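Friendly challenge for the regulars: who can give me the structure tokens for this chain first? No prize, just bragging rights.
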Amino acid sequence: MDGRAEGDGRVYQAQGDQHISEHHHHYGAGEAAPAPAGPDSVRRPAIGRTPVVLRDRSEVLERLTASVTAGGGEVLVLHGMGGCGKTAVAHAFFQSVTGAQGRIGLWVTASDRASLRAGMLAVAADRGAHDAELLAARNGLRPAADLVWERLDRSAEPWLLVLDNADDPQILRDGSWLRSSPRGVVVVTTRRAAARWWPGAELAHIGVLPREDAAQVLCDLAPESGTREQAAEVADRLGRLPLALTLAGGFLSHQVLDPWTMDAYGRHLEEGERVRLIDQGADVLSEENPRHLVGRTWQLTLDAFEARGLPEAVALLRLLARLAPEPLPLSLLNRPEISAVLPQTRTETALRALLDQSLTELIDAGTRCVQSHGVLLDSVAAATPPEKVAVLDTTAARLLDAAVPAVPDAGPYDPRLRLYAPHALALLRQSREPGTTGDVLAVATRLAVALHRTGDYPAAWETSRTAAALAERTLGSEHRLVLAAHSRAGRALFRLGRYEEAEAVLRRVRAVQERLFGGGDPDTLDSGHGLQLVTGNLGRREESLALLRDTVEGRRAALGAGHPLTLRSRSSMLAALGADELADEEGGALLDLPSECARRLGPEHTVTLGARHNHARALTVLGRHDEADAGIRSVITEYDRRFGPDYPIALAARQLLARIEHQRGRTDAAVELMRDVVARREAGLGPDHPFTVAGRRQLAEFGAGGPRTAG
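First reply, four minutes later:
Bragging rights claimed.
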């Protein structure tokens, strides 16, 4: 058969069974068929804005340089959270190697399969692959990765290959794209921190910058905007994250009509939406790249979680974003209360995913913790759908509530308690719903009580006063919970030796509570108990004793005779009364209080132990020194066992023992005891604290000087 076709016509001639595949490619008039897509260059890094000067990073650059000096064959992985400067480090190393050392530099973007494949085939072409080989590899007729590495192995010149933004290592694995070669060194930048993704490679973590170097980055970019110290303050607010520093410096350096100082920028960071302000430093003339914006760089990872069927990782990160960028005890996340946000059984998987993507890290802060960067958390919080915020806040509040002791007791220092404080305060800063705010404030106040009862008075004061101030915005200044938090702050001020400030706070709060709730309200009585401690230590004994009597009677009426708070106030009477008063108080029954406490609360209860302590003081006042001596020694033994010798009430017990020893004529023993007490108080409270000063005064009364110093 003869056939003829013209124009776009086709003629087929066949004998037997034939299978014909047609491929149609349509181009406009005068257009040539496009070449396969690929990068414009693999000899120049395809990155955005680079630092004016790379600050810090000297240690990792030295290690990278050593790998080149050794010849080749190594794979080095730079890992860290988005925005920490991994690409900047790789770029600085690339420039050094291709400049001074004359090595061939090859740069491939490995953020997705298409970019990686096109870039690596361009590397093969650069290293001498023929068009036919490249066409066969592109069409799947020969293994593309084998072609690339064959050409790299046969390279006449030594080389450096950078695989940038390799945040999905599976892409590298699928085609066996990541290999080593004696002719060169491979550097990978990635957010994936798990060693299992990088067998045989050496891993180097890239974190945030040291404070001084972070400040210098801002000064490099905006030298006219402020001093080094002002830059350091701004750097701290930015968490010393290189991407955030670069954007902030870009913003400051490009203001023309109304230039901002670093101080002004820092104030706006505190007052406004931090992420939006930072991202204003991006170059508006440049193509928008999510990796170059703090508000979007981590969204890439969250999208990947969703695509990989890990929505619980997104949920966990959103929950963390309601809290603080401070160490968070892992035990807080391993609770059933988390189930409202993600299944508790999936928390481990979610956390491992965040760790693997460098979105959080494990640290030891006295207990095992996770910690995430503040700018990251701000970015995630800003992008959290509004309809999810309520359940996230409620869940965070319930987790904190479950972690803080329901009835805080005296005890040794617990590092976890202080770690919870910034998270409760961060949740209060974000919460605007009255119910949730009230719940979190109640937890924060209870946490302050727990801190107080472990002797951590500075943290107790800071937690309670800050929580009250934050909650006032939503609840108002006369809300019961706000007043209770202020009252707790006053109690902490007393323990810090700031008596006048403590009296002012407690007197003001008690007056409002009395007006709103009545004098017999438990909260009013609690403030009254604190106020009597202050006035007593200020030397106003009669006022203090009157307040204490009112508190005892009020608590007996409101809470009952057997309530621990009622018994605690009665125990304070044992420490406040003179000899004649002790005999008359409650018909002499007050001296039987330790037995009553043991019967009602148990012999191990802290209130029972405190009653025994104050009972020994009462026996001393009554001149019954042998009984007082035996009683206080047994109390000291128990204090040391439960709290340690530096605990405040343990030192108070030793001071009482020293007084007893002195009254019994054992001056040397009394002096030795008091010297130890004063030395420990100076170390724990400072030399000017009233308790320390009182100890030195008692030591002087014993006829001795201050603590002996080594020499």
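The longest strand covers residues 184-190. The chain has 32 helices and eight strands. Your move, everyone else.
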